[in-house]
Amino acid sequence: MLSKKLISKVLDKALSTGGDFAELFEERTIKNNITLDNGKITQSTSAVVSGAGLRILKELQSVYGYTNDLTLKSLTQLAESLSSSFGGERRISMGVIKKHAQGKHHRPAIQWADVTKQQKVELLQKAYTACKEVDPRIVRVVVSLADSTSDVQITNSDNHQYTDTRSRGRISIVAYASDGDKLETFHEGPGAQKGIEYFDEIDVIETARQAGRKAITMLNAEECPSGKMDVVIGNAFGGVIFHEACGHSLEATAVAKNMSVFAGKLGTQIASKVVSAVDDGTIENAWGSGNVDDEGNKTQKTVLIKNGILQNYLVDKFNGRRMNTPANGACRRESYKFEPTSRMSNTFILNGKSTPEEIISKTKYGLYAKSMGGGSVNPVTGDFNFAVNEGYLIEDGKITKPVKGATLIGTGAEVLMNIDMVGNDLLRAQGMCGSSSGSIPADVGQPTIRVRNITVGGRGGAVQ
To answer: Is residue 74 a contact partner of residue 52, using CB atoms and an 8 Å limit?
Structure first.
């Protein structure tokens, strides 16, 4: 990492034209990826990402640039170029930089640097074999293991310096099932800020079998009917709807510009009284956790919604200026190439009082969206549509036949108000979240919930 002396010179240059805050983010990341396609290694890559990004703020203006040349000359040129965006006299100068000790949470028991390629391949072979043996109709299994270890150093013109180490591993298992002209796929992708020991903890063999079984189930599914109906959404990755349709609209990136449906609604009811939700970047070893965020703020547990009432937004330093609100540990970026902004970490709806069985039994007719897929959202309006990866009809309070091709359509505000039952089976799942500051690891999650009268798209005819 760069010396305090060098950094001080760069930041001082950045402040020379009247900027009131400057920040240098350094990163060195080692990434590895191995992929097996039907038992054969088709990809094995390693990469080192190294560079620095410089941000300068002046009141409600921001400029950002980056370089992978970490010499004093290159960094000074970057600072000079960015500072030329402002035309004014120096307001502040650098003082003595104080280094803050990094936290020691979220550390792997086995460092990824100590794991051999053979160990990784053996893990992938176990997952491949377990999935392939589920059924003869599993015609292809693609499994991959990605790990990364990042060292970051964040130094700002408030004379503070923060360091952190982030180490993650994630396995991806994709099962392909075929029967005649029918083809279905299913994906499982558990990950954590742990070493290879994590995949023993979660039983990767059973996870692989689950991917295979679900692909076979959907192979024989009928097309889902369409229309307004009650929808029971499963736990874990079911939380992607809250993440996308509500979570992004609670980020200061949108709120500060009044481009969120939830802007200006602190203290008001935006969800059913049975809904409480948090963003918690402190969960030990969780996929989206950290000791500090990408501005150096300590991560924290932020209550977003309590009993339906909006409590907080997710705020970064820059957008906090517009909102007159302090940053709350929610500033993240993909790498040094991206300017940071407010982002989610581990975001989920909290447990309620109902059991999943009770929720199903009290639903006369509807859709059980056991596993969700991808979708799209407009954060300004909250309009969304999401694919259902694994779905079943509910008839007379019982889960009956599997259905495919279902899409959930609505708005975040509408869905939040129409949740009338929340289960007690909270579970989180891992994903990659894309936004203006790049693609970052994030947990989504929830217990089983029921949403009344939501629009379901499908090709199985209209609901009678």
So the answer is: no
Cβ–Cβ under 8 Å, residues 304 and 280: no
What are the pLDDT digits (tens) for 356-370?
999 999 999 999 999
Residues contacting 239, CB < 8 A, separation 6+: 347, 348, 349, 428, 429, 444, 445, 446
Sorting pLDDT into bands at 50, 70 and 90, what band is 97? Answer: very high
Question: Which residues, listed in sequence order, are joined to residue 144 by a DSSP beta bridge?
Answer: 35, 172
The first and second tokens of residue 102, run together, are 């990094």
HEC per residue, 162-231: EEEEEEEEEEEEEEEEEECCEEEEEEECCEECCCCCHHHHCCHHHHHHHHHHHHHHHHCCEECCEEEEEE
C-alpha–C-alpha distance, residues 250 and 253, integer Å: 8
* Cβ atoms 189, 443 nearer than 8 A: no
Structure confidence by residue, pLDDT tens digits, 404-456? 999 999 999 999 999 999 999 999 999 999 999 999 999 999 999 999 999 99
429 touches 239 (CB < 8 A): yes
* Tokens matching residue 199: 């995949």
Q: Are 66 and 50 in contact (CB under 8 A)?
A: no
